């Protein structure tokens, strides 16, 4: 099986994380929204996950992540963490990353609602997560994520809010660039397959 729908996010596994606005509403309206979301993402999740690919679109987003090998030290990074509940529920090791995603969405929604003078949920709940079990599926998912801007009639190679440019650039990035390239053997093949992808069939 190429991917598994799951509730928890377990250490050491790859996951496709994706979600959209309630009733497909816009969740990013201007550039400041995109940058703010990415800054919140880094704040709440950089200690717990590695990012292999992402793309933010006006009404949805995609991330390909790998959960780091978490240990007891990871819990001290979570503000207001109740150690008495560490062994079960949302405070278990397997649920820690899900909890951090929930904090991200809550923080972003509160800020977005304040600026846009709106109320209520912004993102669908729960957010979607699928565990990736197959290398071919993982490679194709990277291609799919990076090529999302084509749906907006935009050039995916120059799209500002995806990891594609960061991966092909020589500039420093938090994206696991080298590990991504290794999945495609080399940079030339990475670029070629993005421009000439195999048939990509994802149903979300």
Automatic annotation (TrEMBL):
Every Transposase IS200-like domain range: 10-148
Organism superkingdom: Bacteria
InterPro entries: Transposase_17 (IPR002686), Transposase_17_sf (IPR036515)
SMART domains in the cross-refs: Y1_Tnp
Gene3D superfamilies: Transposase IS200-like
PANTHER family recorded: TRANSPOSASE IS200-LIKE DOMAIN-CONTAINING PROTEIN, TRANSPOSASE, Y1_TNP DOMAIN-CONTAINING
Protein name in UniProt: Transposase IS200-like domain-containing protein
Species of provenance: Flavobacterium azooxidireducens
Upper taxonomic lineage: Bacteria, Pseudomonadati, Bacteroidota, Flavobacteriia, Flavobacteriales
């Amino acid at each position: 099986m190429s991917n598994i729908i799951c509730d928890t996010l377990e250490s050491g596994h790859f996951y496709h994380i994706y979600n959209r606005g309630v009733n497909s509403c816009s969740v990013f309206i201007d550039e400041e929204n995109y940058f703010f979301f990415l800054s919140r993402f880094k704040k709440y999740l950089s200690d717990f996950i590695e990012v292999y690919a992402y793309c933010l679109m006006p009404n949805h987003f995609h991330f390909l992540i790998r959960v780091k090998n978490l240990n007891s030290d990871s819990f001290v990074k979570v503000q207001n963490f109740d150690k008495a509940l560490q062994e079960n529920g949302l405070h278990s090791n397997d649920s820690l990353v899900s909890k951090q995603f929930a904090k991200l969405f809550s923080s972003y929604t509160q800020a977005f609602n304040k600026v846009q003078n709106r109320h209520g949920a912004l993102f669908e709940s729960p957010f979607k997560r699928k565990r990736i079990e197959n290398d071919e599926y993982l490679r194709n998912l990277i291609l799919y994520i990076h090529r999302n801007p084509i749906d907006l009639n935009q050039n995916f190679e120059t799209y500002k809010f995806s990891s594609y440019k960061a991966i092909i650039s020589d500039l420093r990035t938090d994206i696991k660039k080298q590990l991504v390239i290794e999945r495609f053997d080399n940079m030339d093949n990475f670029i070629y397959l993005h421009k000439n992808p195999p048939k990509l069939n994802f149903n979300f």
